[in-house]
Design brief:
Blueprint lengths: L3 H52 L4 H61 L6 H46 L11
């Protein structure tokens, strides 16, 4: 049976965890805003430079060369932006996972402690029921650990696939170079 002090301590821990998670979420939003601001500044600067270069074009070949030069880094920039965005999201996801694992471990400890207390106070002759409860608790714990391992493996696989896709996209989306004969 939980005492009032235990309930209050548990509530304080929950509130502290909520505020910790909230501050980390705000830090992630701050990083996202910073990333978007940097991308917007770079885009504006590059757009102005490109517009100035377009105004000085004298022939079609020069225009095609200028356009190809401007398009070439776009895939790399998009991949870089996506990687930064993914890192921010992954970092926040890791914090949430860490908190969830800690909360789950704490809940399991409390449940096991409650079961142990109930077992100690169980009447004579209830050993079979006690063994069944202990077996159920251990099975549930093992299942939870398996699910956590599977989620971690799936996350690692998704991250590896994301990096492979962005690397492939950056290398395969480079425009073909033109020759003077085409002009």
């Amino acid at each position: 049976m939980l005492t009032v002090e235990q309930i209050i301590a548990h509530q304080k821990a929950q509130v502290a965890a909520l505020f910790d998670l909230s501050s980390k979420a705000l830090a992630s939003v701050e990083k996202l805003n910073e990333l978007n601001l940097q991308a917007a500044k770079a885009s504006l600067s590059e757009g102005a430079s490109h517009a100035q270069a377009l105004l000085s074009v004298k022939d079609l070949h020069e225009l095609v060369t200028l356009q190809n030069a401007a398009l070439q880094p776009l895939a790399e920039k998009a991949a870089s932006y996506s990687r930064h965005l993914y890192e921010i999201a992954t970092s926040m996801g890791a914090e949430v996972s860490k908190l969830a694992e800690a909360q789950t471990a704490d809940a399991q400890k409390q449940f096991v402690a409650a079961v142990d207390t109930a077992v100690k106070n169980a009447p004579q002759g209830s050993e079979a029921a006690v063994a069944a409860v202990k077996n159920a608790v251990s099975t549930a714990t093992a299942a939870m650990e398996s699910v956590q391992k599977a989620v971690k493996q799936a996350t690692e696989l998704a991250e590896a696939n994301f990096h492979a896709i962005t690397a492939t996209a950056a290398t395969t989306s480079k425009p073909a170079k033109t020759t003077k004969a085409a002009a």
